[in-house]
Amino acid sequence: MADRAWTTSLVILTQDNYGALTLVRGPSVGDHGVMEPSEPIAHSSVASRVLALIDHTSLGDDDTPEVITTLCGAASNEYGHVASICTWPRFIALAHELLGGGEVGIAAVVNFPTGLASPADTAAEAAGAVGDGATEIDLVVPWEAHRDGNSTVVAEMVATVRGAIPDHVVLKTILETGELGEADLIRSIASQAAGAGADFLKTSTGKTAHGATPEAVAILLDVASEFRSEGHTVGVKVSGGVRDVAGASEYLAMVDEKMGPTWATSFTFRFGASSLLPDVVRVLSGSSGSDLPGATTDY
User: Fold this and answer.
1) Is 172 a catalytic residue?
2) Residues of the chain above pLDDT 90, percent
3) 205: CB partners within 8 A, 6+ apart
4) Active-site residue (options: 138, 256, 279, 298)
5) What is the pLDDT of residues 245-275, one digit of tens each?
6) What structural domains and CATH numbers belong to the chain?
7) Known catalytic membership, residue 207
8) ∠ CA(258), CA(246), CA(32), 5° rounding?
């Protein structure tokens, strides 16, 4: 399939009365595929859409219970709530104590960040997290093995983990698209993950040099569109470098154009980020800052 021709010069979006965004020119992309800060559109209606799609994330190596308590406390505010919080398996019981039974999902990363554990060990890790209260699993697939030519390892991993957790638990597969680079590799890993039972195709861990790019997201949306045409719902999660409402709105414009203006809900589209929520609150409050603590990480 030919690559989508997203250029590097966008600053213009338009918005219709239903909140759908139209891409006028391709997005501005800086080093490592990170959206450069800009304000192409920062209307509160767009920020409200973004808020409901965020997986508010903390995956610091030195995270503490206090950090996760703060993360969970920020998940809901006067403007609404995020789709989920995302953290390490060791903090899921705490997150469940704080958020369990509510509207905010609780996601645990597994096989994170390297993707090098065995399917059996990863399935056990996922099942343990669900036992502690996780409602969603973000699984790093063995992308390096896929890149090196193993054509079955990704499907085996996804199917093994899918079989170890209840059907209602959302399974997001982290494909590390920025490290794969080539369009054919991204398309094939996404198709294998979706075909083996993934609910979401996620770009990145945020722990490598290259995060989400418009080119990679366009491919994931193409795969999701193909599965939709066959009667299957597969979502897309953009993670790695989305730091503000302006950058998020550019991806939303891509989604609205490709999938239609009503497709992007928390069931089909997410942003994985640690520093996006403070900017959403800044836009919704009409202020130049936010009381929420920001972060400088890419996830």
Assistant:
1) no
2) 81
3) 109, 112, 113, 140, 174, 176, 239, 240, 299
4) 138
5) 999 999 999 999 999 999 999 999 999 999 9
6) 13-285 (3.20.20.70)
7) no
8) 80
- Of 55, 132, 202, 222, which is the active-site residue? 202
* 113-124 residue pLDDT tens: 999 999 999 999
pLDDT band of residue 287 (cuts 50, 70, 90) is confident
The two three-digit tokens of residue 190, written as one number: 């996404």
Of 172, 199, 222, 237, the active-site residue reads 237
d(CA 45, CA 9): 24
Omega within 30 of 0 (cis) for the link into 278: no
Structure token pair of residue 2:
């030919």
55 assigned to active site: no
